[in-house]
Amino acid sequence: MLGKIEFFETDDRPDIAADRARILTALLRQLQSSGRNAVVTPALGGTLGVCFDAEIAGDRRFLKTHLPDPAARASLAREADILVRLYDKAIVLDRFELPLADGTRRLCLLMPALTPLSGPMQPADAAAMARECSERLGDWRPGDLPALHHYLASAARALKTLSDRGLLDQASADEVSRLIGLLADRFADLSQALCHGDFGPKNIMLEGTVPRVIDWEDAFLGIAGYDYLYWLTFMENWPFLQTAAFGRTGLAPESERAILVLVVLLKSYLAVCSGAYLKHAVSPQARIAEILELR
Which of 91, 17, 73, 5 is nearest to 217 (CA)? Predict the structure, then answer.
């Protein structure tokens, strides 16, 4: 989520559609020059992804690259390292440099074509999957890993923006500020973990019948249990909030509430920065208030 926030906070943004078209031309040229019969089409999902569906020598594949800036390249390289750590060679089949016509190069990942889950995941299963990833990764950390304090800095900007625009009342803003301050104060004493950062239903997919957690470009050093609480904040999982928000992470309930508030605040801020909130049926005030009222 942090990468998306930073993207929409700036006015100097690349034209993703034009960039995708340049990369598509280069991909086809490179794949076909190796003598392989390849068909490549843009995959339009995701906010910032430059992704393609492909059929290469009769095999269905998925190709992923990055936007033209060093931070985006570093995020994709970090994602590749994490996926290899988790799944060996099952997901990252190849990584290669793609030369573009302007003389620049992009890192590309070649992956199998995964399929969505057949139905909604239950909270206990989501908590177990997040915990399994954390255990597999253990104390290993990729280079240049963002940390929770980057999220807290974004939260301060988010709180000011929502308050200044009248999207969050003063009482709610004061309580959100208190909870985020509590999280900052307690961070050093909480169990830290390599968090996914965007652990949601669309990022859990099947390789055959085996579930895999993909799209780790937003990974950061956070608090063990963050990913499960993040999963709860997706609208399709919202009904679970009343029964499954507390007691599944090993954290104190007030810390769990603070993480939920942080996530929903940042999601609301992202929607404001991108303009998407204008189409949302539920206002930032209503979403945040529901977290604050959880018991």
Answer: 73
Which residue type is seen at 49? G
The whole-number pLDDT of residue 13 equals 84
Rounded CA separation 76/216 (Å) = 8
State the pTM of this model.
0.93
**96 DSSP β-pair partners:** 108
Termini Cα distance of the chain:
27
Q: What pLDDT, on the 0 to 100 scale, is given for residue 292?
A: 96
Tokens at residue 115, please? 């399929």
Write out the DSSP string of 31-68: HHHTT--EEEEEE--SSS-EEEEEEETTEEEEEEE--S
Kindly give the parts of the chain with pLDDT less than 50: none
Q: What is the pLDDT of residue 47?
A: 62
Residue 46 has what pLDDT?
62
